[in-house]
Amino acid sequence: MSAYYPTQCTPTVYPADPFDPQADAETLRNAMKGFGTDEQALTDVLGRRSITQRLEIAEAFKTMYGKDLAKEIKSEVGGNFETVLVALLTPLPNFYAGELHHAIQGLGTDEQALVEVLCTLSNYGVQAVAKDLVAELKSELGGVFEDVILSLLTSLPEYYAKELHHAIQGLGTDELALVEVLCTLSNYGIRTVAATYEKLYERPLEKDLKGDTSGHFKRLLVSLCTANRDENVDIDLAAAHADAEALLNAGENQWGTDESTFNMILVSRSYAHLRQVFREYEQLAGHDIETAIKREFAGSMEDGFLSIAKCVKDKTAYFAERLHDAMAGAGTNDRTLIRIIVARSEIDLGDVKEAFLRIYGKCLEDRIESDCSGDYKKLLITLVA
């Protein structure tokens, strides 16, 4: 079972055993030698060898006869039979790259082929295959469909760095996007994204966050950006109770609110510890931490602390809520929709789908079906299904 596929995959072509590339090369040479071509011999050899074995055969053919096997096949056969044989001799990244190029450069753009290739490869596979096709894709595509395709071609650190930059530098600051990205990444993830951001834009992420936000919300983002959250899974019950009391005394048990205490505890403590803190808080206060945050804070600070609390309790439910809100009311927040679906598709989007159905009583695919249209809709549903 691979790390990419959640179930055991069953191929139809297996490596030949025993395998002799020189003997196979000789068989192919004889099949194309003289008058006529032995198509069955070509089929028997190339149709019953794995891709690595086929490439070994091609190398042996060149060594033994000084000729390129694919070119020899092209000179001997034609039509779809030739197309299949040449495809069998092409390394998968090159083959997929050729298919994408054909889908872009042919008469019209073959959106279905683009979706098929880009949605069935891993992130690494997509980037290996299509990294040199970005300019072509931009010239052929447009709108939100283009946005999704280009997102699929971008490594996650670079993608998140670009999303943070857009949230900071766009028209107004997208505080919810900033919080979403910084609250849902691990320490390593935040550091990697921050390093990528500085490489892309030649200035530190923290500096841009400071320049575009203010007050306690700026301090919250800077704290998240330091990526120093404790990631220990052990829980100290006494310490958790003390933190719950500290939060209560910093908010509901006094006049005014001590934002620094909330910031320090919610940003630096581990998720496992915070889950226990929230249980202790509910026993002390008689209501959950979200209720307390809503009473004590407003605006960006409320959004920020609520996002942390929701991620601590159930990150998949948090993403489900973000997707729901992106499609609620008039219009669609396409950027949020694309970001979450693309970024989580190889991590936990299946769990997010289950949370969406549990919370809202409707399949995520059905919601996308009713809220989006065209190739954009088809591509999102392909990623989600």
Characterise the protein shown here:
With about 375 residues, the protein is an all-alpha fold. Among the domains are: about 20-90, Annexin V, domain 1 (Orthogonal Bundle); about 90-140, no CATH class. Helix content is about 70%, strand content about 0%. The protein is built from 24 helices and no strands. It has helices at about 20-30, 40-45, 50-65, 70-75, 80-90, 90-105, 110-120, 125-130, 135-140, 145-150, 155-170, 175-185, 185-200, 205-210, 215-225, 235-250, 260-270, 270-285, 290-295, 300-325, 335-345, 350-360, 365-370, 375-385. Helix 1 crosses helix 3 (about 50-65). The longest helix is centred in the last third of the chain and has 29 residues, at about 300-325. The protein is elongated. Mean pLDDT is about 90; it is low at about 1-5.
CATH 4th-level superfamily of the domain at 21-88: Annexin
> Given the C-alpha coordinates, what overall shape results?
elongated
Low-confidence stretches: 1-7
Q: Supply Rg.
A: 27 Å
Quick check: average pLDDT? 89
Major β-sheet profile: none
Distance between the termini: 21 Å
Compute the number of helices: 24
Task: Give the strand tally.
Answer: 0
CATH architecture of the domain at 21-88: Orthogonal Bundle
* CATH topology group of the domain at 21-88: Annexin V, domain 1
- Strand content is under 5%
User: Helix coverage percent of residues?
Assistant: over 70%
Class based on secondary structure composition and strand pairing: mainly alpha
Order of helices and strands: HHHHHHHHHHHHHHHHHHHHHHHH
CATH class placement of the domain at 21-88? Mainly Alpha
